[in-house]
Specification:
6 helices, mainly alpha, elongated, 65% helix, 2 domains, two-stranded antiparallel ribbon, Multidrug-efflux Transporter Regulator, Chain: A, Domain 2
Length: 147
């Protein structure tokens, strides 16, 4: 079965990755792409490895990694195996930041879920949406109150 991603145009790559053509050009200009984009007749061409890399870049961006850090990561990859320890450290730091964000979001979700339950019970006629002791404390722990 032929590989249908062997030579994609920039438009096809944009469609496959969910990124805009503008973003792909921007990533190329900013040095985020691992390898200079191959040109056939002056046109950008993307292969399977490019799509895999772009998928990773989108996950890193979605998880809060700044573009300069992704650029640094790409540069380290281009340096070869000798940069593996620095790449590992960069990824460990990012993993730790993401884990901390998840922990904070989980705490927020707990408070929000409690609020939903309070209002669902109230609307079902079995509760009161006003502050209760433990609910009030949870709200303050996350950074405020909204009643």
């Amino acid at each position: 079965m032929p590989d249908d991603t062997a030579a994609l145009s920039i438009g096809e790559a944009a469609e496959r990755t969910g990124l805009s053509v503008h973003t792909l050009r921007f990533y190329e200009k900013e040095g985020v792409l691992l390898h200079p984009v191959r040109r056939v007749g002056g046109r950008r061409v993307y292969g399977p490895e490019d799509l895999d890399w772009l998928f990773l870049c989108t996950r890193l961006r979605a998880s809060g990694m700044p573009l300069p850090a992704i650029r640094t990561y790409a540069a380290l990859i281009r340096e070869g195996d000798a940069s593996a320890p620095r790449r590992l450290e960069l990824m460990r730091r990012h993993r730790d930041r993401v884990a901390a964000q998840i922990e904070e979001l989980d705490a927020c979700l707990t408070v929000i879920s409690r609020k939903v339950k309070i209002y669902e019970e109230y609307l079902a006629g079995v509760g009161d949406p006003m502050w209760s002791g433990s609910d009030d404390q949870d709200d303050q722990a996350v950074g405020g109150q909204d009643g």
